[in-house]
Design a protein that fits this description.
Blueprint (H helix, E strand, L loop, with lengths): L51 H17 L24 E9 L2 E7 L6 E3 L8 H17 L8 E9 L3 E8 L12 H6 L2 E8 L11 E7 L2 E4 L8 E4 L11 H12 L5 E4 L7 H4 L6 E5 L2 H13 L6 E5 L2 H11 L4 E4 L8 H9 L4 E6 L2 H13 L2 E9 L9 E8 L3
Parallel strand pairs: 5-6, 10-11, 10-13, 11-12, 13-14
Antiparallel strand pairs: 1-2, 1-4, 2-3, 4-5, 6-7, 8-9, 14-16, 15-16
Helix pairs in contact: 7-8
Length: 410
């Protein structure tokens, strides 16, 4: 097997993925390696071109390096990386930049180190429907001169749902009060759209979205399916949902085996109920807390659809504000944590230490904040039974992890 020298650069480095480890070498003739014609310029996939087996090993090494930097976590049992069923064509959402240069519309990602757009007529990690929709949007933008700088549209946001269907977001470089007449009929006839919304972001910055959005067509909801035996879950258009749904059954199996089936379940940062509802067993009760009010509305609707509403209390508000008093009043032996990249606030961890849970499952998208939070939990008496690296985003250097913890007092 021929191999190039290890690559020491990192495409689009993120604070959560900083590591001294070199990226795995490219292996063009490896049967499980993926090739891409724009890999050297596109800022999306840092590991593309490497053997997928080596990608899995690399992500475990990165996680081990980050965790072992904390003295209390130096000897944690670290499982092999949980592999994705698909190493390509898995991603169900695409946020892509738009521009018109010399009369040609480009839709893609920014080139490494610049604001130049690398056009992506095909992306190896996008699901096929996203590529098909991007091709339709490219023609639509060109025919109506809608791409910046001549037109108002500077980003598109595509999400694939059950059906399959699509939610389309169009980010406009104009203020919300600007009157806009978009020819949407062409899109609704060509694509299986559940809804179309516009987001107004007149400021040129690294942030894709502005603060104001409006639904122009159809619904502001999307439905995703994680289990063929259960109804699809409703999520708000544009809201967070895992990009690789195929891994969720395996993650829920690992969580369920660790948490057991005894007593109420607390799901913190519960989103639309993706984890808590899937883990709820017959006769058990669920407490879910989430700051995003739209997500909580969806979680309540999902509990109704699944016939679980009578056993679920789903609350909108900041977890760090609501959970400490609720933890004192309603302790539970089983807790799921799934915070965003910044991790858990100290007040949440302190509440879990003051009133320990018998079993705790922490799903993290940031190894650095996971290491910080696990250190605090261990200082408070928890034991980390096992950490499972999770390859939610193959071909990228994103490392996620599931930490399974217990407490001696439980």
């Amino acid at each position: 097997m021929s191999r190039a020298q290890p690559r020491n650069h990192r495409r689009k480095p993120q604070p959560s993925r900083q590591s001294a480890l070199p990226l795995p070498p490219q292996a063009a003739d490896a049967p499980d390696a993926c090739s891409c014609p724009v890999a050297q310029t596109c800022g999306g996939c840092a590991l593309i071109g490497s053997s997928y087996a080596e990608q899995l090993v690399y992500k475990r090494q990165v996680l081990a390096e980050i965790l072992s930097a904390e003295p209390l976590l130096a000897d944690l049992p670290l499982a092999p990386t949980l592999a994705s069923e698909q190493s390509t064509a898995y991603r169900n959402r695409a946020k892509l930049a738009v521009s018109c240069e010399t009369g040609r519309v480009k839709i893609g990602l920014f080139e490494r180190g610049s604001r130049r757009i690398v056009d992506l007529p095909h992306c190896a990690v996008h699901r096929p429907l996203l590529d098909q929709a991007t091709a339709t949007l490219r023609r639509w933008l060109a025919s109506h001169r809608l791409a910046v700088p001549r037109g108002p549209i500077k980003y598109i946001d595509l999400q694939e749902g059950d059906g399959p269907t699509l939610q389309l977001g169009l980010v406009l470089e104009v203020p919300p009060e600007t009157p806009i007449d978009l020819p949407l009929a062409e899109l609704t006839e060509a694509l299986p759209l559940e809804g179309i919304r516009v987001n107004y972001n007149p400021v040129r910055s690294s942030y894709v979205f502005g603060e104001v959005s409006r639904t122009l067509h159809g619904s502001d909801r999307l439905h995703v399916r994680i289990d063929t035996d259960a109804p699809a879950l409703q999520v708000a258009a544009g809201a967070f949902v895992q990009l690789n749904l195929s891994l969720l059954p395996a993650l829920h199996t690992l969580m369920g085996r660790h948490l057991g089936r005894r007593g109420p379940l607390h799901d913190l940062y519960c989103g639309s109920g993706l984890h808590g509802l899937a883990l709820l067993e017959e006769g058990e009760r669920l407490l879910g807390i989430e700051a995003d009010t739209g997500a909580v509305t969806c979680a309540r609707a999902n509990a109704e659809r699944w016939g679980l509403a009578a056993r679920c209390r789903l609350i909108a508000g900041a977890v760090e504000d609501l959970y400490p008093p609720l933890r004192r009043e309603q302790p539970a032996d089983r807790v799921v944590l799934n915070p965003s990249r910044p991790g858990c606030r100290r007040a949440v961890l302190d509440a879990l230490i003051a009133h320990p849970a018998r079993r705790l499952a922490y799903l993290s998208c940031n190894p650095h904040t996971l290491a910080r939070d696990l250190t605090r939990l261990v200082e408070g008496g928890y034991q980390v039974q096992r950490v499972v690296p999770v390859d939610m985003m193959p071909q990228t250097d994103q490392v996620e992890a599931l930490a399974l913890c217990s407490h001696d007092g439980k």
